[in-house]
Amino acid sequence: MIYRTQANLNDVSCDTVRRFTAAFAEAKGHRPGVYVRTFGCQQNEADSERYVGMAEALGYEWVPEPEQADLILYNTCAVREHAELKALSLTGQLKHLKAQNPNRILAICGCMVAQEHRLNDIKNRYPYVDFLFGTGSPEKFPAYLARALTKKGRGFYPDLSYGITEGLPIRRESRFKAWVSIMYGCNNFCTYCVVPYVRGRERSREREAILDEIRALVADGCREITLLGQNVNSYGKGLYEDYGFAELLLDICRIEGDYWIRFMTSHPKDASHKLIDVIAAHSGDDCRPKIVKQFHLPLQSGSDRILKTMNRHYDSASYLSLIEYMKKAIPDIALSTDIIVGFPTETEAEFEDTLRMLETVRYDAFFSFIYSIRRGTPAESMEQVPEDIKRARFARLLETQNRISREKNEDYLGKTERVLVEGRSKTDPNMLTGRNEKNRLVHFVGEDALIGCFASVRILAADTYCLTGELVR
Ligand code: SAH
Ligand code: SF4
Which of 166, 316, 348, 437 has its Cα between 20 and 30 A from that of 147? Predict the structure, then answer.
């Protein structure tokens, strides 16, 4: 049984935090600041928006820099070692911020902390961190904070009982793009992956809660909604008999408005023809809302033996037949994928199977990763591929996909794209930047007033990662 609760921000702990923030504001003339830094995936970003939301509801105000904050929270990732090492190194740098202001509260949360060895590591090596908590019970954050504020000692909470809490306040980073988690956790246990161990078993939110959240976002003028789950295609399992992801998408499409619907991630073993048919029916240019013509379908490897060793439950032939069905149903669909190179025991020929799949599918974009050993996963004890070979394969993989991405981007030359404008370009402030429905970055000259709106842009130049164009009035 999954425990389902409704957020309650009126309990004793919340009163304690509110008393603290009120006294702080009275003494200093401003509210205490909260700073959250997020590592890793969109689910973590969505979680962070809830932590800031809760802190704000309890009297904190969001600040953009850790130096301005009275409460600093790092929300960590455990998918690859690189992300962990970065979070640990930045945790080391928090020491001087604590020394500057010993009343500052430092907390580390997320997937890295849900692993016992990392929890102990941080506990022992970083004694100035006040509390640590995992991913299972975000609603307990105020209680952990209250305990730290009342100086009852350090707190260590792996939070391994995983439920669903509705109604937590959210401070969304964007006013026109929103993450909506539809499910949490994962049951797939791919042999390389730590997610099932740090995010718990798969569980779906009730459809009414999801639809209510989306209705409110659309009423607020939200232009893009991304549905999140480790495997959205198994939405509803264990909760409903005849209601899955395709049905949920259909219900969302009934919430009228000019907005895009995205989702991630789909596991190829569960992506159904029915789902593809729903996308085909609701991705026409006149659809409001519109499901975007973009599908992220992680392949991981092109070798059938590696896929089996990874415990992925599909092979290259069934994957390709799914892609074929998709291309037939939605001829101009943009495809993207995740690839791991150097999975244990991968041979040169097996790696080349992956390269061949890139050439066959011709993805618009991909995310590629060098295999990273994760403690406690089955692949940890398999025969590892040497680092230099992994790196060389990674370089070849990038070279192949970069060429394909550039060629696919060149197809946009001369076309007019509908772009959701996100803001000023970081590299050239004269330019606005946004994405088309296929998630391609588009730069063009335009007014700030366009930020958060859809704009029509004629594409004049294309490279591997982005398109540049001019506004069509
Ligand atoms: N649930 C999603 C994403 C999970 S993590 C899915 O199944 O697609 C995101 C990506 O990180 C994975 O798709 C995989 O390509 C990569 N990844 C996961 N564990 C990894 C590891 N140990 N080393 C390298 N890449 C990894
Ligand atoms: Fe990890 Fe596989 Fe689950 Fe994705 S489906 S989160 S890769 S175990």
Answer: 166
